[in-house]
Automatic annotation (TrEMBL):
The gene is dinB. It is found in: Cytoplasm. Binds 2 magnesium ions per subunit. It comes from Christiangramia gaetbulicola. This is DNA polymerase IV. Pfam families: IMS, IMS_C, IMS_HHH. Residues 7-187 form the UmuC domain.
Length: 363
């Protein structure tokens, strides 16, 4: 019988906005959006006071202000967010070295074996949340279960400033009762497609065969088939391998001149070169991202036979991709990313295994 793991997913509550409210007491209790307030601005994060009005991350600043006239916009301070994120990770390492950061404000922890020798993952999650509050003044939520997928889903259940444990004996029922929109990885488009197929809950999903799901959702079909049965074998990886690195710019005014586009691409390529040198990585695949004024989006890619990291070579390929076909409209955003990096390794194929439930496994 495979040994079950004890996985915690920690997710900071409205992290960027909460940091701004922490540093500026005048913002506490008020609707706050981190991001630009211009016509082209986008909300990076919203406080819970703002979320009550429907303000969400990635929302246009214009729409956000329309939804919440009293919304206060604050410019992002990423260095400050990174500083506090570092303090939070120090707390994680007090309990385990098996920490896999997903972003500045969330991470997976494997506490099956932990530095405190505590048998209860639920207790560890509570202690970690308390330590984060003591150290930073910020609230965190947590999900606790037997694998990363369920822990991630569970961390949303009692937000903000709460936690949810799904012990082994409750896993299958928890997943069957779950609204399909709550499944991590099921976005708006996929959810709508599932609705059309009569899939509204985990129980509905579980009734479909793997062949049926693969036919309708491609490679994701096998993933959906497994996770609804509690099968998710991905381990907590302390050193996540970067898959790509990129940068993009949204313009204050739409641009149609290729000369202006090349100027912007040069600035973006320079930023990527700086990040590549800092991370000491290089890549073989350059991807150009173009978002038009009508919000349609295109990506064009080219892979070469050797690794590159210099601005000149990245820009040269980006130019080639830009001229690959005629622009169909004026452009509001350009981006370049480099993938197929020299940090990537082929993961061995994991053998599919059925879930083993140990009722006495203490959570």
């Amino acid at each position: 019988m495979e040994k079950l793991r004890k996985i915690i997913h920690i997710d900071m509550d409205a992290f960027y906005a909460s940091v701004e409210q922490l540093d500026n007491p005048e913002l506490q209790g008020k609707p706050v959006a981190v991001g630009g307030s211009s016509q082209r601005g986008v909300v990076s994060a919203a406080s819970y006071e703002a979320r009550k009005f429907g303000v969400r991350s990635a929302m246009s600043s214009v729409i956000a202000k329309r939804n919440c006239p009293d919304l206060i916009f604050v410019k992002p301070r990423f260095e400050r967010y990174k500083e506090i994120s570092g303090q939070i990770r120090e707390v994680f390492f007090e309990y385990t070295d098996l920490v896999e950061p997903l972003s500045l404000d969330e991470a997976y922890l494997d506490v099956t074996e932990n530095k405190k020798g505590l048998p209860s993952a639920t207790l560890i999650a509570k202690q970690i949340r308390n330590r984060i509050k003591e150290k930073t003044g910020l609230n965190a939520s947590a999900g606790i279960s037997i694998n990363k997928f369920i822990a991630k889903v569970a961390s949303d259940v009692n937000k903000p400033n709460g936690q949810k444990t799904v012990p082994p004996e409750e896993v299958l029922q928890f997943l069957e009762d779950l609204d399909i929109r709550k499944f991590y990885g099921v976005g708006k488009v996929t959810a709508e497609k599932m609705y059309r197929l009569g899939i509204f809950t985990g129980k509905d999903l579980k009734l479909k065969t793997e062949e049926y799901l693969t036919e309708h959702f491609g490679k994701s079909g096998a993933h959906f088939y497994n996770v609804v049965r509690g099968i998710h074998l991905s381990e907590v990886k302390p050193h996540r391998i970067r898959k790509s690195l990129g940068a993009e710019r949204t313009f204050n005014e739409n641009i149609s001149s290729e000369i202006f586009m090349l100027e912007r691409l040069e600035n973006i390529a320079e930023e990527i070169e700086r990040r590549l040198n800092k991370s000491k990585v290089a890549g073989k695949t350059v991807t150009l991202k173009i978002k038009y004024s009508d919000f349609t989006q295109q990506t064009r890619s080219k892979t070469i036979s050797y690794f590159i990291s210099s601005k000149e070579l990245i820009l040269e390929i980006a130019k080639e991709l830009l001229y690959q076909e005629k622009m169909k409209n004026s452009v509001r955003l350009l981006g370049i990313s480099l993938s197929n990096l020299n940090t990537e390794k082929d993961d061995p194929k994991e053998e599919k295994k059925e879930i083993s439930v140990q009722l006495k496994f203490k959570f």
